[in-house]
From TrEMBL:
Alphabetic keyword roster: Fatty acid metabolism, Lipid metabolism, Lyase
Catalytic activity: a 4-saturated-(3S)-3-hydroxyacyl-CoA = a (3E)-enoyl-CoA + H2O; a (3S)-3-hydroxyacyl-CoA = a (2E)-enoyl-CoA + H2O
Protein name per the record: enoyl-CoA hydratase
Source species: Pseudaminobacter salicylatoxidans
GO MF annotations, alphabetized: enoyl-CoA hydratase activity
Length: 257
């Protein structure tokens, strides 16, 4: 597929996707969604790929859903199209995706970063849910995911005032896993993704599934789910290899990676 709003490359076993609508600060329209879904689904299906990185430009990861595309829509349009529901398909990508965020991650941009598995932020990153300033509210999961990331008080503050959080506050609050200098952002994210891609792919995908489950269920159910998945790792050749390598003091040579 020829993409117009994203750039897609592979770096070894890592798929790198760069949002590329510079004139609109990577605002997320229907074309971006369609292309992102095509790219992530292709990487999911590609046995050579073990993890992905999603990034934007120095100025903006993404400045939100495309306001100009939404502006004239009516309630009936939104309801019948089930507008934004396609993003839930993105959130169900099975291989890990690291969001590498520099500059603005606002509205849908912040929500997209939160749909990834973890966020590495440049020191220039700024996160916000400014929908309230447009007379609407978050519609791609912001009121739900941000609350789970940073807690009720900060999520209310962000969604009700529309203020932005800088990278240091985002790290303090648990929204991002770490902050790196802007010049090193993509390389750092690629390095982490390459590390993940070097482990056993089924084990990696089970970790993602189990951690995601903690968002959707009770602790008791989540623990049961984790234990069943953990038991199933003993059906993997990679479990035999990983544990043998540890005992023999050598590096594991995983077959499924
Ligand atoms: N949508 C469309 N175009 C955008 C967007 C956007 N979200 N953000 C920026 N752009 C465009 C600008 O219109 C401008 O285009 P042009 O050159 O044609 O005028 C270009 O990008 C550059 O932007 P600025 O000139 O504004 O750049 P600045 O550096 O001055 O400002 C900001 C950068 C602060 C990021 C500013 O662009 C801004 O505030 N953008 C909007 C941020 C925002 O409100 N995002 C939330 C959008 S709504 C959303 O994501 C979810 C809505 C949920 C609705 C639920 C419905 C069901």
């Amino acid at each position: 597929m020829a993409y117009e709003t994203i750039l897609v490359e592979t770096r070894g076993k890592v798929g790198l996707i760069t949002l590329n609508r510079p004139k609109a600060l990577n605002a997320l329209n229907s074309q971006v969604l369609a292309e992102l879904l095509a790219a992530t689904q292709a990487f999911d299906a590609n046995p050579q790929i073990g993890a992905m990185v999603l990034t934007g430009s120095d100025k903006a990861f993404a400045a939100g859903a495309d306001i100009k595309e939404m502006q004239s829509k009516t309630y009936v349009d939104m309801y019948l199209e089930d507008f934004f529901s396609g993003w839930e398909t993105f959130a169900r990508t099975r291989k890990p995706i690291i969001a590498a965020v520099a500059g603005y991650a606002l509205g849908g941009g912040c929500e997209l970063a939160m749909m990834c598995d973890f966020i590495i932020a440049a020191d220039t990153a700024r996160f916000g849910q400014p929908e309230i300033t447009l007379g609407v509210m978050p519609g791609m999961g912001g009121s739900q995911r941000l609350t789970r990331f940073v807690g009720k008080s900060k999520a209310m503050d962000m969604c009700l005032t529309g203020r932005m959080m800088d990278a240091a506050e985002a790290e303090r609050s648990g929204l991002v896993s770490r902050v790196v200098p802007a010049t090193e952002l993509v390389e750092e994210a690629l390095k982490s993704a390459a590390k993940i891609a070097d482990f056993s792919l089924p084990a990696v995908m089970m970790v993602k599934e189990a951690v995601d489950r903690s968002y959707e269920t009770t602790l008791a159910e989540g623990l049961r789910f984790e234990r069943r998945l953990f038991h199933s790792t003993f059906a993997l050749e990679d479990q035999k290899e990983g544990m043998a390598a540890f005992s023999q003091k050598r590096t594991a040579n995983f077959r499924n990676r």
